[in-house]
Amino acid sequence: MAEKVTVTVLAKMKAEGEKITMLTAYDYPFARMVDECGVDMILVGDSLGMVVQGESSTLPVTMDQMVYHTTLVARAAKRAMVVGDMPFMSYQTSVKDAVKNAGRFIKEAGAAAVKLEGGAAVADRIKAISEAGIPVQAHIGLTPQSVHQMGGFKVQRQEERLLEDARIVQESGAFSVVLEGIPFEIAEKITKTLSISTIGIGAGVHCDGQVLVIHDALGVNEGHVPKFVKKYKELAKIAREGITEYVDEVKSQAFPTKEHSFK
Ligand code: KIV
């Protein structure tokens, strides 16, 4: 079996200039495909709320839901590193809550790392979780859990603040940082400045790696997708064709045939 992706492997990839791939997954079948296709990291994102649960933001997602979905993904992932995304209010309330909830992803769900949103404001959480022996991926720029504070899902352009946040999350012990919704020149500067890997989503080609929400990338999500998404396939279209064919065949009694029946 191929070498398991760990923080050490990721550090080596950054040092050698090999791009890192990350996709989200929320269940066993998708996680298995993602893992077997060679994706390096699987994020069990709190985007779960929007693409699986049908919510309009990530805010309602709970810790128990994240632990459940991470368990399904971790069961499938043989090579990829599984990262559990800490949901809204699972780490903002206190350092103690942050460490306790990060621990649940590792102990109950089988993740190898956690991700949380924020820069300088969550430096003490990143430090405490890392000191507990849990690898932390930070997430700066457009941070969906702060949608109300940002006044919507908007590109973040404050260069000095972004550079400062990136520096602080690295100093606090993060092994990697997601850069979401920021101009590509700023993402390039951050990537050149940091020794830890930057994983971009809507942050241009110069990041050390890329992440996308799988339901967006494969066209499972039929709603609005942000400008930064590339749709690699149209799975919803294929599924609709199959479902419609099934309905027609049952109605017309073309299914089941003898082939699908017992004597
Ligand atoms: O929840 C998620 O899927 C994420 C990615 C968009 C980075 O945080």
TrEMBL record:
- Name the lineage: Bacteria, Pseudomonadati, Thermodesulfobacteriota, Desulfobacteria, Desulfobacterales
This chain is encoded by the gene named panB
Question: In its keyword annotation, does this UniProt entry include Cytoplasm?
Answer: yes
Q: Name one GO cellular component term.
A: cytoplasm
Which keywords has UniProt assigned to this entry?
Cytoplasm, Magnesium, Metal-binding, Methyltransferase, Pantothenate biosynthesis, Transferase
What are the binding positions for 3-methyl-2-oxobutanoate in this chain?
46-47, 85, 115
Specify the species.
Answer: Desulfatibacillum alkenivorans DSM 16219
> Where Mg(2+) is bound, by residue?
46, 85, 117
Write down what this protein is called: 3-methyl-2-oxobutanoate hydroxymethyltransferase
**Reactions it catalyzes:** (6R)-5,10-methylene-5,6,7,8-tetrahydrofolate + 3-methyl-2-oxobutanoate + H2O = 2-dehydropantoate + (6S)-5,6,7,8-tetrahydrofolate
Fetch the Gene3D superfamilies from UniProt. Answer: Phosphoenolpyruvate-binding domains
Which Pfam families does this one have?
Pantoate_transf
